[in-house]
Amino acid sequence: MQMRKMFPMGFGCCALTWLAGCGSSPHATTEKYYLVATNIKIPYWQSANAGLMRAAQQMGVKAEMVGPDTFDPKAEHEAFQRIMAEKIKPAGIMVSAADPSVMQPDIDAAISQGIPVITVDSDAPASKRLTFVGTDNYKAGLMGAQLALKQLQGKGAVVIYTMPEQANLKDRLHGYHDGLEGHPGIKIVDTVDIKGDARIAFDHTQEMVDKKTIGKIDGFICLEAIACPEVADVLDRNKISGKAVVAMDTDPRTLDWIRKGQIAGTIAQKPFTMGFVGVPALDTLHHYPPNPLDKPWTLDPQSPVATFIGTGEMLVDKSNVDAFVSETSQKSQ
C-alpha cells in the first residue's frame, strides 16, 4: 500500500509501462476491467487484448475485451450497455470510440455511476472520459505526409481511405493536410469511407482499374489498418507498380506488402501498450478516484488526471521492416 499511497489520485507508477509494486495491493475477487472496441478479431485489437491480459495477469485482476467482430458503432454501444447491466459493475472501462457521438452518452452514464472510463485508440473528447491513452494521431499524420511527399516527389493525385466519423482518423487527416500544405502539386482527388469493411477498399481500387482511371492516381493513403493491404493486393493482381502507398498500422499483410515493395511504409502504433497501460491506469482511478469523478479535469491546471498518455508511433518501411517483425515475434513468444 505504501507505493500506491504516494499517488492518491494520479496514475503514478501504474501509468508507466512497468508494474513493479503496482499489483502488491489486494484486489477484490470481483474486480474486473473491460476494453470495448469494434472489429475485435483483427490483428490490431488482438494485440491490444494481449496487452490487456498481460497487465491483468501481472496485477492479479480480471479483464476482458468485448465488442463486435465488424466495424459497427451501434453494436459497440450495445456491448457497452451489456457490461453496464452486469450484476457486478465493472471496476473500470476503456473504450475505443468508433463513433464518439454514439459512445458519449454511454461514457457519461458510466462516469455518473462512479465507474472510471478512459478512451484508448480513438477518443471521445467531448465526453466525461478521464483520459485518452493512445497515439498522437496528428503526429502520425505528419509522419505519413513526410513519407508521401518523398514518394511522390512533391506532385501527384492522391486517394485517401478512411472512416470519417472517428476522432483519431480526423486527427490523422489533419496531420496529413498540414504536412502536405505548401506542396500544391499534390492534390487529394478522392476520399473513400470504407465503413470498416476491407472489401470496400478492394472494390473501390479495382473499380479504378476497371474504369482505367488508375493511371491518373499517383498515390494511396490509408488512415486505418485494413485498407492498404487491399489496395496493394489490387495493384499486384493487375501488375501495377510505381504507386506511392502509405499505410497505417502493422497488419501482417501490410508488412508483407512492404517487403514486396507495393507499400512504401506504414505508421506503426502500439496497441499492446494501450491495453497494457490502460489496466493499471483504470486500477488507480478505481481505487483512488479523483473527486468528483465527473469534473472536467482537462480544464483544471492542477488536475491529478493526465489528459493524454501517449503510447508512441513510428515509421516502418523496407529499411526496418525485418527488424520490426523479428522484435515483434520475439516479444510474442
Your description of this structure?
- With 333 residues, the protein is of the alpha/beta class.
- It folds into 2 domains: 2-135 and 270-311, Response regulator (Rossmann fold); 137-268, Rossmann fold (3-Layer(aba) Sandwich).
- The protein has helices at 2-5, 43-59, 73-84, 100-112, 137-152, 167-180, 198-210, 227-237, 252-260, 271-287, 321-332, and strands at 32-36, 62-66, 92-95, 117-120, 132-134, 156-162, 186-193, 219-222, 244-248, 265-268, 308-310, 314-317.
- The strands form 2 sheets. It has a 6-stranded parallel β-sheet with strand order 2-1-3-4-5-11, with helices on both faces. The protein has a 6-stranded mixed β-sheet with strand order 7-6-8-9-10-12, sandwiched between helices.
- Strand 6, helix 6 (167-180) and strand 7 (186-193) form a beta-alpha-beta unit.
- Helix 5 (137-152) crosses helix 6 and helix 7 packs parallel to helix 8.
Helix content: 40-55%
Order of helices and strands: HEHEHEHEEHEHEHEHEHEHEEH
- What gross morphology would you assign? elongated
CATH architecture of the largest domain: 3-Layer(aba) Sandwich
Beta content comes to 15-25%
Unreliable stretches covering 5 or more consecutive residues: 1-24
- For the record, the count of structural domains works out to 2
